[in-house]
Design brief:
Layout (H helix, E strand, L loop, with lengths): L4 H13 L3 H4 L8 E5 L6 H17 L3 E5 L6 H8 L7 E6 H9 L11 E16 L8 H10 L5 E4 L5 H13 L4 E4 L5 H6 L4 E5 H9 L4 E5 L24 E9 L4 H15 L2 H10 L2 E2 L4 H22 L5
Parallel strand pairs: 1-2, 1-3, 5-6, 5-7
Antiparallel strand pairs: 3-9, 4-7, 4-8, 4-9, 4-10
Helix pairs in contact: 3-10, 5-12, 7-12
């Protein structure tokens, strides 16, 4: 077969016109990757994102730079990723709040379920019900009895309306049959909790663990099905309120259309990281546990989480605009 010079030139021009991602797939990543965290510095999502980003940098040989873009209940940072180029160089540090927001907000410019590729799980996030040391109840049964005897007199702090701490508290209120007043905070509520100005919070384990261990606040129960190794003597809520379970999580997501080769490389790398004893020990220091999932498993998980929490949010009548 004879190939003309004109054909060779045309083929070369066509190759030059191919999208740049076509060249980058085999060598991904070939430059810095931005991992956008839609929460402020020092928050639990930020802490986990920085830990994962450092290990991904070490494993893949390129910097994974954490960029905090908080605001609008995580929607500002999430929106930025949703509308980024789907080339694997802008990723989202996704969390359960992203699932909540699909129900809480009616005018989002993105759909968390369909506008993202759910790349990999990083860790699950147990929460813990905590009270001030001055609070009279020392167990969940005592807390429920006190709340029923004093309806509307317990103030529950949260990280804001629609936050995990709020929605997990709403689920507890409904299942325990108690009347508690929600007090949303824009800033750190732990000083007020320790001082007794608010009497309860359902707090992420990474932020509560050291305060509990140092005796500055009291842990009544963890929100997981089983007791946690980080607080082995603290019971589960379900031991008193059967069926209660509320588990946060941290993960990686990418814009829809990100090449399968990139997604698979990130997922495979994260899976290897999650079984590394040193990484697992770092997660344990934060009070969280590895959550390995394939992209298919993770997409299914997002669907089930959306179904569960949509029902809780609608039953509680929580709506944001």
């Amino acid at each position: 077969m004879t190939i003309s010079r004109r054909s060779i030139v045309a083929a070369g021009a066509a190759a030059l016109a191919l999208p740049r991602i076509g060249f980058a797939q085999g060598a991904y990543p070939s430059r810095t990757v931005r991992l956008i965290c839609p929460f402020p510095p020092g928050s639990s999502p930020d802490l986990v994102a920085r830990l994962a980003g450092q290990w991904l940098s070490d494993a893949l040989g390129q910097p994974f730079v954490i960029e905090d873009r908080p605001g609008a209940g995580s929607n500002i940072g999430t929106d930025a990723v949703a509308h980024s180029a789907p080339d694997g160089y802008t990723l989202l540090a996704s969390v359960l709040t992203n699932v909540f927001n699909t129900t809480l907000y009616t005018k989002l410019s993105f759909n968390f379920g369909s506008d993202f590729v759910h790349v990999a799980g990083i860790a699950n996030a147990p929460y813990v019900i905590v009270v001030p040391l001055s609070f009279p109840a020392k167990t969940v049964p005592e807390f429920i009895a006190y709340a029923k005897a004093n309806p509307g007199k317990i103030n529950m702090a949260s990280g804001g309306t629609g936050s995990s701490s709020h929605i997990f508290g709403e689920l507890f209120k409904a299942m325990a049959g108690v009347e508690i007043v929600h007090v949303p905070y824009r800033t750190n509520y732990m000083p007020d909790l320790m001082a007794g100005q608010v009497q309860m919070a359902v707090n992420p384990m990474p932020q509560a663990l050291e305060l509990v261990r140092s005796g500055k606040i009291r842990a009544l129960a963890v929100t997981t099905k089983a007791r946690q190794a980080s607080l082995p003597d603290v019971p589960t809520v379900a031991e008193t309120v059967p069926g209660y379970e509320a588990l946060g999580w941290y993960a990686l997501a990418a814009p829809k259309g990100t090449p399968t080769e990139v997604v698979d490389k990130l997922n495979g790398t994260m899976a290897k990281i999650l079984v590394d004893p040193k990484f697992k020990a770092r997660l344990a220091d934060l009070g969280v546990e590895p959550m390995p999932m394939t992209p298919v498993e993770f997409a299914t998980f997002i669907g089930s989480e959306t179904d569960k929490w949509t029902k809780v949010i609608k039953a509680a009548g929580v709506v944001l605009e």
